[in-house]
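Work Package 3 (structural annotation) set out to generate three-dimensional models for the target panel prioritized at the project kickoff. During this period the team completed the workflow that converts sequence records into discrete structure tokens, so that structures can be stored uniformly alongside our sequence database. As a representative example, we reproduce one entry of 260 residues exactly as it appears in the project archive.
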Amino acid sequence: MNQLGYPPWVILHIPHDSSVIPSEVRSQFLLSDAELKLELQRMTDHFTHALFAEPHGNATVVRAPVSRLVVDVERFPDDAAEPMAARGMGAIYEVTSQLAPLRRNLSSMERERLMLTWYHSHHNRLEAAVSNAVEMYGRCLVIDCHSFPGIALPYENADSVVERPDICIGSDPYHTSLKLEQAFVEAFSCDGWRVAVNDPFAGALVPASRYRVDSRVAAVMVEINRDLYLDSKNFEPNSDFDRVAAAIKNYSINALGQCS
């Protein structure tokens, strides 16, 4: 396995591993403390920072500081452009993973404050990191770091009895070359893991200013099935966590070596 670490033109984007609900927004949620804890357990991409970015080598890490239940930085800011908004899960979720009411109705000022404080500030950091990489190295790769539950949640609108892959590689027709996609698929297949492309989730994130206009910015999404590393009863790392975490970083780095 490659031990050189991530190169400096890589951005590790970690949007969903926080379970923080700031005290000033707690009153927006309709759930009891116990219900909110359970929803956080269901929806958090547990330990993705540890899986992908410890250590992060020379890569830049852009990590959302609050839970996706506060604001989801992976959604389009405009509900009209966001397909999940039709299910009540645009940038500001209105329903839970079980499609039950999540929060009270918010005023336009409250929504604007959430977006300004947590969404736009996050994307400003991502924009700055990508701009810096492009300026310094003439290129950038955003690795969008996620995990997913072994059984589909109701909000996904997927068949919960269909077996899911161990690894999902997400790609974008503009920002993910076939060579890049194939390199990640081949690297993550080395452990005997079942690897799928754009299944159960699709796409790869880049800053809005670069989206399908700047070919110097590449992107790939890597989603890890939580059954590989997480104890489903207590949502803590399982006994295989360290091996899986080392493999994820090394396979990502090896894939980069194959397509640099």
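DSSP finds five helices and six strands in the chain.
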